[in-house]
UniProtKB/TrEMBL annotation:
This is Nucleotide/sugar transporter family protein. The keyword Transmembrane applies. Residues 9-71 form the Sugar phosphate transporter domain. The chain crosses the membrane at residues 26-43, 49-68. It is found in: Membrane. It is a multi-pass membrane protein. The lineage of its organism: Eukaryota, Viridiplantae, Streptophyta, Embryophyta, Tracheophyta.
Amino acid sequence: MTKLAIIPFTVLLETLFLKKQFSQKIKLSLFLLLVGVGIASVTDLQLNLVGTVLSLLAIITTCVGQIIKDKETVSLLGVKNMGQEKESHEVKKSAKDSLV
């Protein structure tokens, strides 16, 4: 479940700190993904405080690391809109992985 929450939180952090804009379709699909993660978490009988805290730390560090890596890649290559293409690919990949 932690893996599924990384993309929505990356979008949230990029929106808050980098002022990046995302389409309504992407926001809606990520909202539905989070609802699914929430339902799965609530119905999980092994959910505990330590595991939840560690999952949140994993999500935060992975998101920040991914954002920093993407920014470095863009600055090194001088590529514009790379994040938007990657964002679209990650959303499609996430949707495909969740169906499997």
